[in-house]
């Protein structure tokens, strides 16, 4: 392998302009994420604002219901991961290899550790809204559907999923909040 064959390097062994540009862009993005970490309420208000702008855009354009449905399913999956413990107690029931949640009053307290931390939940939800917003600029994603069926199906899916999650929380006695 020659000197210029590695990823992101030009023929002369220095990083290419494109590689340096995207590296710098990634550093700036990460810097903004790091600065926003302590401001939980502000982050969520901005995300709710983006969500509101997205909903208004979909309402005014009268379309992109499949994209909105996919965004709803994605947010539901993120929310379930946010409510779930990192180590599923149903898998730990048979073996005593790792930590488990306390099931009796006199057992040792172990803090609830989420499968999806709040910051990653916020970050993924915000990126999902932005991707859905970008999709509304392309007619290829505007698939004609009868939207009330999608709304009813989403409501049914939400109720069934949350019922299963709440039963799991009651059975293994953990509260994610």
Automatic annotation (TrEMBL):
Q: Which UniProt keywords apply?
A: Membrane, Transmembrane, Transmembrane helix
The record lists the organism as Pongo abelii (Sumatran orangutan)
What's this protein's family per the entry? Belongs to the RER1 family.
Q: Is Transport set as a keyword in this record?
A: no
Q: Which residues form the signal peptide?
A: none
Q: Which Pfam families match?
A: Rer1
State where it is primarily located.
membrane
One GO cellular component term of this record is: endoplasmic reticulum
Q: What does the record give as the organism's lineage? A: Eukaryota, Metazoa, Chordata, Craniata, Vertebrata
This chain's protein is named Protein RER1
**Its membrane topology:** Multi-pass membrane protein
